Write the structure tokens for this entry.
Amino acid sequence: MQIAGSAVVVTGGASGLGRATVERLASQGAHVVIADLPASDGKTVVRQVGGRTQFVAADVTSEAQMLEVFDVAETLGTLRAVVHCAGRGGPLRVVDKQGFPGSLEQYEAIVRVNLIGSFNVLRLGAARLAKTEVVDGERGVVILTASVAAFEGQIGQIPYASAKAGIVGMTLVAARDLAGRQIRVCTIAPGTFDTPILARISSEIRESLAKATPHPSRLGHPAEFAMLAAHIIENPMLNGETIRLDGAIRMPPR
């Protein structure tokens, strides 16, 4: 699928992996709609990136708000790709230090954003892609974001790891489901990346995370995530795959 001239939706596009993806795709000629929360830096990113980039405030779990995002994207050109980066974390144990069961409400909230939000974006985006004309044997691609936590979730990550494992689980099924409509689905599972979330932790912890990556022994750059997202869009044989982007890291229990 050709990036230049295509309309692309990037959720979570106001910061971190999403922002890097917006910058990469816009630099390659895509018309990008950033979907992010109202309090995000979406408008600032639009000013800095320029081009035909637009920001639409939206919660990825909202059908109405995401429909508006896709409506705006279709005014910019033919929708050909959706890159879903939005998500959230939050510590939670099965049983807390005082012996009380972990919060069901917190578990549901994190799973709702990460997993239910992913399905919401996937289903709404795929429905729009399905209405486009076939070009070179395909209509478009949806790229989801999981995490290495889907495979090696650490202590305290149970809702996050559960949700990300769910995204991995839906990837091949969705790709098979949408194959008859010539729509591809892939997932990127990043390791430890230098995002605003990691910027909040101490330098000592950041250094230990960097050293835990065999090679390159550092935190990943958001631009490297964006590079892979762009390649998935352009490579028609990438489908139904979850790709670990992690420098060969395998996370320990804590």
About this structure: The mean pLDDT is 95. Strands lie at 7-11, 31-36, 54-57, 79-84, 140-145, 183-190, 242-245.
